[in-house]
Write a structure and sequence with these properties.
Rossmann fold; 40% helix; binds 5-S-methyl-1-O-phosphono-5-thio-D-ribulose; alpha/beta; Four Helix Bundle (Hemerythrin (Met), subunit A); 369 residues; 4-stranded mixed beta sheet; 7-stranded mixed beta sheet
Length: 369
């Protein structure tokens, strides 16, 4: 996708230095475009933990490149049998909810098994990171093609009036490598000339909607309006939302989805108002080992500081200001689980299915085993 008419991805190997991986540091968006150079496993782990990069697919790809950087920069006399599991563990401990992180690291672990020459280890890790990145791009592109049909249907049914889509958090290209998941059908529709307008939930406390989704849509010229997280229900009651599309960090085999905190409330409001509620996901975010999302998906708890302080631009400088009484404690769960019964459909790279084990298994028979 483009920023100021220049094509970007969210992560790329530095063309001039094999030992550097570049990312967009998303903490300063939308006010500053900061490109950060990652030069080690530790820097990659910190970038995930402190959310320079975020979003399930991008977390997975950053972890893969983190392994590559760790292997590339390690001294040649490293004991690989100790180094590799320790590196995987360090990356696994960065964020608990997005299953891509664990799925990708498992792929890396399997690929490196039995290898002990540094050159070979480095080359395997580098190829795998690039492969996972390309896979994500292809998955997101296909999600766009499948989701486009839903938007086209609504457009026709509504007598060719603009389609109002509500989204939560950022499941856009900044959360992936390109295109995004929830945003991919929106971009596809916009590019095809179907008028779409997006209601962008600000998504407290880190405001990924207000900062990042709004930035992406603005750069691509998609009409949008940023709203406070509490407005969605009201808009739905007044028929101002035609559909909801969100992403997911972990989807259980029976179609429950864990996504950014507040998603569940939007699903409830959508259900009560008969607004279709779709979840867009690449198969990399399915956790086939889990059946009950509410009991079994690990929910990240982050620092209360993220709730108590808010960041903004003041005279060209990014500043954080205190919002609450300094003494008030704050609770900050990052995700909630929307049960499958509230989900109208799952938009995947292989098509749209019911949010159920039968639906997912029909599309991905080889994965459910
Ligand atoms: O905490 P974040 O910003 O990593 O959370 C991101 C989300 O909740 C996204 O909706 C999810 O990762 C899907 S990304 C395509």
């Amino acid at each position: 996708m483009k920023i100021q008419n220049q094509s970007y991805r969210t992560i790329w190997l530095d063309p001039e230095d094999e030992g550097t991986v570049n990312i967009i540091d998303q903490r300063s968006l939308p006010h500053k475009l900061t490109i950060e150079a990652l030069k080690s496993l530790e820097e990659s782990a910190a970038a995930i933990r402190e959310m320079h990069v975020r979003g399930a697919p991008l977390i997975g790809v950053t972890a893969a490149y983190g392994m590559y950087l760790g292997l590339y920069h390690a001294p040649s006399n490293t004991d690989w049998a100790t180094f590799i599991p320790a590196a995987i563990q360090e990356l696994q401990e960065t964020r608990p909810t997005a299953v891509d992180l664990f799925n990708v690291l498992q792929r890396v672990q399997i690929a490196l098994q039995g290898k002990s020459h540094q050159q070979e280890l480095v080359s395997i890790a580098k190829d795998l990171a690039a492969e996972v990145a390309e896979e994500s791009v292809a998955f997101c592109r296909s999600i766009g093609e499948h989701g486009l049909k839903i938007i086209e249907d609504i457009y026709e049914k509504n007598g060719n009036k603009p389609v109002n889509v509500l989204t939560h958090c950022n499941a856009g290209w900044m959360a992936c490598i390109d295109y995004g998941t929830a945003t991919s059908p929106i971009y596809a529709a916009h590019d095809k000339g179907i008028p779409v307008h997006v209601w962008v939930d600000e998504t407290r406390p880190r405001n990924q909607g207000a900062r990042i989704t709004a930035f992406e849509l603005k750069e691509h010229g998609v009409p949008h309006t940023v709203i406070v997280d509490n407005l969605g229900g009201h808009l739905m009651q007044h028929r101002m939302v035609d559909m909801v599309i969100v992403g997911t960090d972990r989807t259980t085999r029976n179609g429950d989805v864990a996504n950014k905190i507040g998603t569940y409330l939007k699903a409830l409001a959508a259900y009560d108002n008969q607004v279709p509620f779709y979840v867009a996901l690449p198969s990399s975010t399915i956790d086939w080992t889990i059946e009950n999302g509410l009991c079994d998906i690990p929910i990240e708890e982050r620092s209360g500081h993220e709730v108590k302080y808010i960041q903004g631009l003041e005279q060209d400088e990014l500043k954080k200001v205190l919002l609450t009484p300094a003494e008030s404690p704050a609770l900050n769960y990052g995700f909630d689980v929307t049960p499958a019964r509230l989900v109208t459909g799952l938009i995947t790279e292989r098509g749209i299915c019911e949010a159920s084990e039968a639906g997912l298994s029909a599309l991905f028979p080889e994965l459910n085993g």
